Amino acid sequence: MLKFNLGAMTRRSLFGALAGAVLASGFAGAAQADDKITIGALRFTSHAPSFIAYEKGYFKEEGLDVELKFFQAAQPVAVAIASGDIDFGVTAMTGGFFSLADKGAVKVIGGMMAEKQGFPGNVILASNAAYDAGLTTPADLKGKSWAMTQQGSSFHYMAGLIAEKNGFTTADMQLKALQKVGAMIGALKSGQVDAMAIVPHIAAGLVKGGAAKEIGRVQNLGDYQVTTIFTSTRNTEEKQDMVKRFMRAYSKGIADYLAVMGDQKKDPAATEAMVDLIHKYVYTDRPREKAAPSIKAGAVYLSEGAALNTKDIAAQLAWFQKNNLAPASLTLEKLVDTNFADTTN
Amino acid sequence: MDLKLDGISHAYDATRVLNNIDFTIKAGQIICIIGPSGCGKSTLLRFIGGLERPTEGQVLQIGDPPAESLNPLTYIFQDFALLPWRTVRGNISLVLEDHGIRGTEADTIINDVLARTKLSDFGAALPKQLSGGMKQRVAIARALAVKPACLLMDEPLSALDSQTRELLMDDLVDLWLKEKYTACYVTHNLNEAVRLGHRVVVLSRRPGQVRDIVDIDIPLEDRLKHPALLQEKQDYLWNLMREEARAADLELLDA
Amino acid sequence: MPDLDTPTTVQTPSAAAVKPVPYRGGGFAPRPSRLVAPIFFVLLFSLWEAGSRFGWISPIVLPAPSEAFQAFMDLVNSGQLVLHLEASLMRLALGWVGGTVLGLAVGLAAGLFTLARGGIVPFVAAFFPIPKIALLPVFIIWFGIGEESKVATILFGTFFPTVIAVYGGVDNVDRGLIRMGQSFNLGWWSIVRKIILPGALPALLSGFRISASIAIILLVAAEMIGAEYGIGAYILLAGNLMAMDQLVAGVAILSLLGLSVSWLIGRAEKIFLRWRA
Ligand SMILES: Nc1ncnc2c1ncn2[C@@H]1O[C@H](COP(=O)(O)OP(=O)(O)O)[C@@H](O)[C@H]1O
Ligand SMILES: [Mg+2]
């Protein structure tokens, strides 16, 4: 129990306080045995493989005693991993994440969510007013205002993708950082911003309710590795075996998810069973019949075998660096450890 | 202008404070009101100046105040009530401004009252720079500036040390000799009463009633020349008050 | 211990021990010193810098002060500092002045009129403790995502403490002075203007001290909504990017802002409250 040296201990506790402030639930237990690990999770359908592998005992099979810790946002997960308070997490590529990777704290070890044609994915929405005024395709976004959570967030990057694809830059758009998805939705509904991108199940609700218009999909803009699996640099160096076992179990979870949620009509009974499983963790405040449609609509594509699109990651890094949102000194080698999952492209 | 107190009685909620007070303040006279503490002297003075209304009876003005009087009934307070953020001149100008008196007209009045209260050199001083006696002289100057028909003074010297008190009493006497002002002077100090009062109204303990009204016939300027006579008057007043004061004291302890 | 039963008074005075009375006063009166603060700061920063250089303090935890200073100089040299300051000072000024003017009017009403007090005091008690950040979504709907919502956040934040300071200040004005004003037949408005307001000024100025600090605290919250420039926006971005050096630089700018405001109000107190004993 007291094997840590003092320096490590202080760093841990400092970060513990930082991460604890945003912890949604869970208790702080010290990781002791090699096979006792903690996964930082968010209550999203896109995090389903964590829940599936946990519920179906895939982690146990690999000799991993897993504890799930729930967070409200992705950034604190990265901070908690940097501090060593948790071992694995899933996050979008953000400025903050790049910065932690540059400081040698975290490493990407696999791919998770990706935009893929035929699967639900991020939707580009226009406000009703902007749509009526002629904003009907992503190409029209030049000169328009764009809602995002923060600078350096994936919403910011999506604006960059759209701009690049259509021959302009984000400097030609008015980017509005509104901190919260709820604020983004409110601003779009009231016409205070012209457009934004949002996960499919929320988009569906807004479009169906007549609050906004769909003008495109991010998946049509090209390859995009939205989220990745990551761990601490120390784990990739000192506990390679444990990381490998984790990835095997996690890939099984992804495979199960894809088999069922990827084609929900194939086996309705299996789909309902998986919705039940996911509902134990996601939308727990809603009754099952209300949660199910959102879970089903939010079944985005997850990379098979946790394969990582390194080419796209490199492209993302380059874009962030070009826009001064990632440290110039960060390299792909420093960001990614390719020993634990296949890479595509 | 005379003032007549006509059957004044007062109660704060259930406490009777004053009971059927009758007397007259004659123009050009100083009336002293003495009585044990808590008997309603300050309350009575507030009625006379119109700052409060008695539950029964009324205060009557007999005759009109002189036309030049800006504020016929003017108070001088125990705690001076000077605005600390205004200079001496500013404090006097305060009471002129609302009468539309500004500029040279105001300056003339201010210079005049400062000279009469021997404050000419202190016009620019702030109250915090002045001693207690000086502050009270500023308050007197301010009162004189509005040409009062009757000065209402509530223990004006009680906050001062005894030497300063003597000096100010001399000033008040000198001023009266020159200007023959009318005043109603509340005090619990018998010496002040016999030095300044043409007439002394003695109130009983609460509820305050008029125990006696004592006239002092010695002219103000001659009073210090007749210490024995004064002492006699003072002893007489003290005899009237002793029992009242003792009873009032016990009453306060009981409460 | 001398034996109490044996008479000791036979001793001659010269034989008795002569010593000064023991001193028991002193202390409890810290004096301001010009020397202590600089020395303390230099010491703290050297320790911090050394800690970073020698790796006792991980760069993830805290950047070296020299790095934070470098981030600050980058901000100066790129010309961005002016843009950020301009945006923030504008919002601070508008929000604070607006909140203060409204607060003065409402606080004065609460201090002077029974009816107003009955309505205002419970209202303020109910709304003051609400964190303005919680109201951000509402502000977006009411005021949009432009300057209005940012100014409104600061305005609301400064309004309530000003109301409290004003009516508290009015309550504390010496009633004797007001009575004096009435006894000299001063008009109602004269009494308010010449007696009540100056009398409440000390409380007002210390209220300003608090409301200005609250305005600076709220700057970050205000600039959460769609701000491109502003010190708060700069700090938020630094946080998003985990750029600790910029974060520390931004926070240092806020504290410098706080110090300047405090100094200004100190000057104002020296000038306007000269009359205080
Ligand atoms: N505003 C008031 N409300 C209630 N009681 C009062 C008020 N003013 C004075 N009293 C009471 O009336 C009595 C007379 O007070 P006061 O006139 O100040 O006495 P004095 O000046 O003779 O010492 C005291 O018992 C006092 O407590
Ligand atoms: Mg009294």
Describe the structure.
The complex is a heterotrimer of chains A (345), B (255) and C (277). Chain A is α/β, with parallel strands linked by helices. Chain A has 2 domains: 35-114 and 225-344, Periplasmic binding protein-like II (D-Maltodextrin-Binding Protein, domain 2); 123-221, Periplasmic binding protein-like II (D-Maltodextrin-Binding Protein, domain 2), CATH 3.40.190. Chain A contains 15 helices and 14 strands. In chain A, the strands form 6 sheets. A 3-stranded antiparallel β-sheet of chain A has the order 3-12-4. In chain A, strand 7, helix 7 (154-165) and strand 8 (174-177) form a beta-alpha-beta unit. Chain A is globular. Mean pLDDT of chain A is 87; it is low at 1-33. By secondary structure, chain B is α/β, with parallel strands linked by helices. Helices cover 39% and strands 23% of the residues of chain B. In chain B, strand 8 and strand 9 (210-215) form a beta hairpin. In chain B, helix 2 runs parallel beside helix 4 and helix 6 (190-196) packs across helix 7. The radius of gyration of chain B is 18 Å and the shape is globular. The mean pLDDT of chain B is 92. With 277 residues, chain C is mainly α. Chain C has a single domain (65-276), classed as MetI-like fold (Orthogonal Bundle). Chain C contains 10 helices and no strands. Chains in contact: A-C, B-C. At the A-C interface, helix 1, helix 4, helix 5, strand 8 and helix 8 of A face helix 5 and helix 9 of C. The complex binds adenosine-5'-diphosphate and magnesium ion. The site of magnesium ion has 2 residues of chain B, from helix 1.
Please give the structural blueprint:
The complex is a heterotrimer of chains A (about 350), B (about 260) and C (about 280).
Chain A: H1 6-20, E1 36-42, H2 48-55, H3 58-61, E2 65-71, H4 74-82, E3 88-92, H5 95-102, E4 106-111, E5 114-115, E6 123-127, H6 128-132, E7 145-148, H7 154-165, E8 174-177, H8 181-189, E9 195-198, H9 200-208, E10 212-217, E11 224-225, E12 227-232, H10 233-238, H11 240-261, H12 268-279, H13 288-297, E13 308-309, H14 310-322, H15 332-335, E14 343-344
Parallel strand pairs in A: 1-2, 7-8, 13-14
Antiparallel strand pairs in A: 3-12, 4-12, 5-11, 6-9, 6-10
Helix pairs in contact in A: 1-4, 2-11, 9-13, 12-13
Chain B: E1 2-12, E2 15-25, E3 30-34, H1 41-49, E4 56-62, E5 73-76, H2 88-97, H3 103-116, H4 132-145, E6 150-154, H5 162-179, E7 183-186, H6 190-196, E8 199-203, E9 210-215, H7 227-254
Parallel strand pairs in B: 3-7, 3-8, 5-6, 6-7
Antiparallel strand pairs in B: 1-2, 1-4, 8-9
Helix pairs in contact in B: 2-4, 3-4, 6-7
Chain C: H1 36-53, H2 65-77, H3 80-112, H4 114-127, H5 136-143, H6 147-171, H7 175-183, H8 188-222, H9 231-240, H10 244-272
The complex binds adenosine-5'-diphosphate (ADP) and magnesium ion.
